[in-house]
Every structure is written in structure tokens, then in C-alpha cells.
Amino acid sequence: MCALGYFLEQAGLMTTGISLVRENAASLEPPRTLWVSFPLGRPLGVPNDASFQHRVISAALDLLDHAEGPVLADYPEDAPRVDTDASPACPVSFGTDATTWQVRLSAELANLSPWYQIGRDRRGGRTMVGVSASSTEEIIERMAADLDAETLPDNLSWFKAAIEDVKAYYVEALTAQPGAYDPQETYNTLWHETELGAALRWFYDRFSAHPQLSGFARIVLPRDATEGFNPSGTTEDTSL
Hints:
mainly alpha; 3 strands; about 50% helix; disordered C terminus
């Protein structure tokens, strides 16, 4: 969107935008940008809060009063607190075949990637990811291939290390997002509200049902993480 703003400005159209990652906006220097301290995937704050969303939009449009840029303004309000049953990560899957694990997991990883990098930068490059010696993209790709083929991984030693890597990646990405997310909320989000959580639940169910590999199930999913799931791996509806 930052690059698009440049092209539109060259055509004589004034532009303004909203950025969720301040570091990116500061680096790319688009003509006019309003930075908001909201979770990734929610540029206007929490759902169903029209008055708050209108204030954000008005603040972004107010930047058009600046004839020239670059202008980077910080929105002064934080988004209202989100209940733990709402995921801070954007849940949208991009692609023409969103029914596959490959598409859903890859899209989720792409949404979390900027936050993981921001968190790692804040820690001076320190990360818990790296046990498996495989990239997170490779882990997701291999995991999704097994899920789509409905097969268990053939290298359990690698899979055990890969699980630790991908869980660490998600936790570091989620905790880097702005907002009042405490450790328990991050835990609930990881296991109950992400595609990865559902994927690991699938592996947990299959390992549990395997006569020789049932003990591996607890490596995939801790006992308390199974609460709130049904056997199909989808979150139970407790609203009735």
C-alpha cells in the first residue's frame, strides 16, 4: 500500500493510509500514514465498534490536510480490550482453495511473520526458534503436506523438534503484537484460535489412535490444550 500511494500521488491523487507496523511505514515513508497500535489484521480496532472505527478513519482522512509528505502520525488511542475468544492474528486465508491445510497454514504464517520479526528485532535478534534446523516455512510446508495427505510424519525426531520451533515462532509473534495480551491469553490463542492449533490437534488425535505411537500424542499437544476442542479438531460451540 505504501508503494501504491507513491504511484497515485504521481498521478495527482492525494493519498492517506493506515499502518499496523510502524517500522515499515517509517522505512518506506509513504505520503501520509496513520500508525495504529492495533493487532495485525484489525486496522480499525475491534469488530462491531462503529464509533471507534469512525474515529480512526477520520484521523486517517485528516492527514489529507497536509499538502506534502511524508507524514507519519500516531493514533493516540489503543483499541478496546479484546476478549480472549477473539484472535489477535488475522484469521483470513488467502487463495482459491482455502480448504487445504497448505493454503490456510501458509496464509496464517504470512500474517504472523511481520510480528515475529518485530519481536525478534526488539530482543536484539534472540529467538527460541531453531531447534529443528529447518525454516518455519519448511516446517509449515511439510506439516501441511502430511495434513492434506492425512498421513503421519515419517521422521518423528524431526517432527518433535519442528513442533517446538513452530510453537515458539507463534508465541513470539503473538506476544509482539500490541495490546494487553497476558501469557494465558497467548496460550489460549495459540491452541484454540489458530490454524496451527487445529493442525496440531489433528496430529494429536491420529497419534492417540495409533497403537504404537499413542505416547507421542502428549508431545504434540499438552493435556490442558485439548479443552475446548471436539474430536474433529474444531473449536466447540459453547454458545447454546
